[in-house]
Amino acid sequence: MDKKDELKQLKESLLMQKKNGALLLDDDGLAKCDTFCEGYKTFLDRSKTEREGAAYAVELLEAKGFRAWKRGDAVKAGDKIYSLNRGKAVIAAVIGTDPLEDGIRLSAAHIDSPRLDLKQCPLYEDNELALFKTHYYGGLKKYQWTVLPLALHGVIVKKDGTSVTVRIGENEGDPIFCVTDLLPHLAQEQVKRTLAGAIKGEELNLLIGSRPFRSDDGSDLVKLRIMQILNEKYGITEADFLSAELEIVPAGRARDLGFDRSMIGAYGHDDRVCAYPSLAALLETENPQHTAVVILTDKEEIGSEGNTGLQSAYFEHFMIDLADAFGTQAHTVFAKSQCLSADVTAAFDPTFSDVHDRRNCAYLNYGVCMMKFTGARGKSGSSDASAEFIGKMRTLFDEAGVIWQTGELGKVDAGGGGTVAAYLANLNIDTVDLGVPVLSMHAPLEVVSKIDVYMCYEAVLAFNRS
After folding, report:
1. pLDDT digits over 24-36, tens only?
2. Helix/strand/coil for 27
3. Listed residue (285, 60, 250, 290) closest to 145, CA to CA
4. Rounded to the nearest 5 degrees, what angle is found at the Cα of 438, between the Cα atoms of 434 and 441?
5. Do 100 and 326 contact (CB within 8 A), yes or no?
6. What is the pLDDT of residues 314-346, one digit of tens each?
7. N or C terminus: fewer CB in 10 A for the chain?
């Protein structure tokens, strides 16, 4: 062996070799990625809100033989069960052949995304224009939400207890809505604002109408006309907004992005891009050794608060009831369980490269990203997975042929963010973050690689079968 070959062999044996996934997959492999992502795009279009995501997940689960389960129901190895929490969060499981006390294989993702919510008294008229007042939800850049086609989704619960589903702006022929912005000719003062304050929260007002009720008497005639339309369509009065959950999201469908169609541009990749692969992997899991569980949860974007977020007890109580059905205790199950906290990470963006550590960031097309820790600056809010658990996942993914990479959200002092990992690790579960790299995260249009989406599915599927 000459020196050149010896050097090459030494590099291959001792140094990490990073390679674009498109160079590692053959044509059949790339076709699998593309085909899988057609189902994912449908999920995105059907799941613009957490309620819609939970409902569509239940639809997919029931089509694969899963049944609703509650405490006291009989359950055995091979059974497929799910629990729906208040229409906004789902837990589903395939019962394994090993005793439950040997632990579960848990994947957890969230199905809420940054958006604009309507305030409780949203409808008003100003100079013969009808508008809705909004309150933004989650960490977003407010200026990105102006002059976009927007849609209205959600539910209105009337005083008699009946519920009305609202979804306007998505179908051909539907009207759309928008938040207006100031024309540049008159924006001399506005452009002096900082970027963070370019649009203020109280300026995120949704334009919804301009034609008045045909009368020369009274005021608020445009508002009255809008209310008449809503009453005719939904049977509601203005007071019914008090008990409504109405969300403003970007209108339109998920689309292939790029001449090569290698990416997907859409609203809500964070975190439906991990939720769908996790759910799809469970749907393909049959008779696993360990019980495989997936959580699709709510409220992650505002700290996982509330009774549908993972800081609540709903998952722990589900596991207490399931453990009781097998004559064991949940804390015993948790101690031997493993979890993939499936949430996105930032993809390297060459336009804004200064916030990334190039040696420790995720790249599009390099596969699903395993993150030892998340959090901010000094790892605040992170569970920081152990070396032992990382070692197990490395071996598992490599043996399963999963294309994966490591990374972190950004440079140490650049900022940061958390996931649900900490709340699951607090239950004494071995937990690591695993997710898809995203460009333009939290924007009305985010970008992901089809290869990375499919590799997230392959990683969770291998995990479920381990």
Report:
1. 999 999 999 999 9
2. helix
3. 250
4. 115
5. yes
6. 999 999 999 999 999 999 999 999 999 999 999
7. N
Locate all alpha helices (DSSP H) within 15-140, ordered by sequence.
21-24, 27-46, 50-63
Residue 342 in contact with residue 456, Cβ under 8 Å? yes
Q: Per-residue pLDDT tens for 30-79?
A: 999 999 999 999 999 999 999 999 999 999 999 999 999 999 999 999 99
Q: Is residue 282 part of a domain?
A: yes
Structural domain range at position 151: 115-250
Q: What percent of the chain has pLDDT over 90?
A: 90
Task: Give DSSP secondary structure letters for 275-300.
Answer: HHHHHHHHHT--S-SSEEEEEEES-G
* Helix-helix angle 450-464:27-46, to 10 degrees: 90
* Three-state secondary-structure class, residue 453: helix
How far apart are alpha carbons 103 and 113 in whole angstroms? 30
**DSSP letter string over 334-363?**
HHT-EEEEE--EEBP-GGGGGGS-GGGSB-
Structure tokens at 163: 């519920």
Are the C-beta atoms of residues 70 and 277 closer than 8 Å to each other?
Answer: no
Residue in 111, 112, 91, 466 with CA at minimum distance from that of residue 316 = 91
Tell me which of 196, 221, 250 is where a domain ends: 250
Number of domains forming the structure of the chain: 2
Q: Does 9 reside within a domain?
A: no
Collapse the DSSP code of 213 into the 3-class scheme (helix H, G, I; strand E, B; otherwise coil) and give the result. coil
How far apart are alpha carbons 228 and 313 in whole angstroms?
42
Nearest CA among 166, 189, 133, 94 for reference residue 463: 94
Let me know whether 241 and 303 are in one domain. no
**Tokens at residue 251, please?**
């209108």
CB distance 165 to 255 below 8 Å: no
**CATH number of the domain where residue 315 is located:** 3.40.630.10
Instruction: Report how far residue 272's alpha carbon sits from residue 90's, in angstroms, rounded to the nearest whole number.
Output: 13
**What's the pLDDT score for residue 1?**
67
Pairing of β 338-342 and β 430-435: parallel
Task: For residue 316, give the H/E element and its range.
Answer: helix 314-325
Adjacent-strand bridge partners of 341: 108, 433
Q: Which residue has the tokens 């007042």?
A: 133
What is the C-alpha to C-alpha distance for residues 120 and 61, in angstroms, rounded to an integer?
Answer: 34
